[in-house]
Amino acid sequence: MYNNNLAYSTYTQNNVGVESPEKLVQMMYEGILRFNMQAKRSINEGDIERRTYWINRSNAVFSELINILDFNHGEIAHYLAGLYNYQIRLLSEANLYSNPAKLDEVTGVVKALLDAWRESTNVAE
User: Fold this and answer.
1) Is residue 1 helix, strand or coil?
2) What are the DSSP calls for 45-109, one per residue?
3) What's the pTM?
């Protein structure tokens, strides 16, 4: 469902100990959760520059998740592409309107994806 090379080269620069492609996707979801937490904190503090920085980081991870989808392995890749694109849209709205509720919505979706990913791949936390 994903192309190991693109994601691996992008993220191993900072995470040398990536054990598997499954672990890499888990780390990407976890990164989005961390970035969203920081973005929400920045919204609450009124820090526009930091808010934009953290939301852009989450958007970059979603873009990478879209790039590593393998559309030759069924409908799930198409579903995930649509879901990821919608999350990018919500993040853009959160940034444009300083709306923490939009961040919360994205965070809820990513938590569910992370739980499902861990369960389906048996990757430890």
Assistant:
1) coil
2) HT-HHHHHHHHHHHHHHHHHHHHTB-TTS-HHHHHHHHHHHHHHHHHHHHHHHT-HHHHHHHHHH
3) 0.84
List of domains in the chain: 22-121 (1.20.120.340)
Residue recorded with tokens 């873009």: 63
**CA dist., res. 66 & res. 64, Å (int):** 5
Produce one character per residue of 31-50: b if its CB has 16 or more CB atoms within 10 Å, e if not: bbeebbebbbebbeeeeeee
- Side-chain-side CA neighbours of residue 91 (13 Å): 31
Cα 75 to the center of its chain, rounded Å: 20
93 neighbors 99 (Cβ within 8 angstroms):
yes
DSSP 8-state assignment for residue 14: T
- Give pLDDT tens digits for 48-98: 999 999 999 999 999 999 999 999 988 999 999 999 999 999 999 999 999
> What are the φ and ψ backbone dihedral angles of 107, each rounded to 5 degrees?
-60, -40
Q: Tell me the pLDDT tens digit for each residue of 88-118.
A: 999 999 999 999 999 999 999 999 999 999 9
